[in-house]
Specification:
Helix content is 38%, strand content 0%. By secondary structure, the protein is an all-alpha fold. GO terms for molecular function: proton transmembrane transporter activity.
Length: 55
């Protein structure tokens, strides 16, 4: 079965991961988020019971 032969696919996978890890990932990590998260106090929400028609 030719799909079980790792010879043509392993170098392609290795080259793509090296390209991603060494070239693309550092460029992506240099971007700053446009809306950085802020420390907001979580306010508890007031909930009311659901009015079930059969109860």
């Amino acid at each position: 079965m030719p799909q079980l032969n790792p010879n043509p696919w392993f170098p392609i996978m290795l080259a793509s991961w090296l390209t991603y890890s060494l070239i693309i990932q550092p460029k992506l990590l240099m971007f700053l988020p446009t809306n950085p998260p802020t420390n907001k106090m979580a306010s508890p929400t007031k909930t009311s019971p659901w009015p079930w028609p059969w109860s």
